[in-house]
Amino acid sequence: MLKKEDFVYFGKFLKPHGTKGEIGLETEDFTLGDECDFVACDIDGILVPFFFEERRAKNSDTLIVKIERMESAEEVRYLTNRKAYIPRKWTESSEELSWAYFRGFTAIDETAGELGEIVDIDDSTMNTLFVIDNDGEELLVPLQEEFIVGIDQENREIIFNLPQGLVSL
Asked: Is 167 contained in some domain?
């Protein structure tokens, strides 16, 4: 069985590409090496692997992939908008860690306690932000290394020392 803690967010499936069972896969800062022959999707709480029959780059952040045993647009449509994960070991060989690696981590402030799950990275402006699901409310935390006190990779937690009042904004 695949364990969620052994995987990191890679990207999400887009819409089917053509009629032969190909689908777009939008990626997040990782390049797939030759050893990467599948991605996993969370389906009803279980990580399910989807193996590549073929893959090619569409542009700098999108792949076109053909999934084994899926032969039509109707079959791959099932994957549309699903998040795709790759084994953590395939990212550990790169020297530079992407901020996207922290998706799924629990954000904890030393003063305020648990803030919630990091669900996205907002890099649409000059100031990159962690997007945290705080009990259904969106909490934005500036991605400043000086705010980060520690990272517990085993428990998938990132500990912050945020300026007073930032959490209550």
From this structure: no
Please identify, among 90, 125, 151, the residue that sits at the C-terminal boundary of a domain: 90
Number of domains in the chain: 2
Q: Cα-flanking dihedrals φ and ψ of residue 10, to 5°? A: -115, -40
Q: What are phi and psi of 162, to 5 degrees?
A: -85, 150
pTM: 0.56
Is 52:67 a contact under the CB 8 Å cutoff? yes
pLDDT tens figures, 17-63: 988 889 999 886 556 666 678 899 989 889 999 999 998 888 777 88
Q: Which of 98, 125, 110 is nearest to 9 (CA)?
A: 98
CATH of the domain at 116: 2.30.30.240
CB 87 within 8 A of CB 7: yes
- Domain limits at 109? 100-160
Phi, psi of 4 (to 5 degrees): -55, -35
* Residue 165 located in a structural domain: no
In this predicted model, what pLDDT tens digit does every residue of 85-134 receive, in sequence order? 888 777 654 444 567 778 889 999 999 899 999 998 888 877 888 999 98
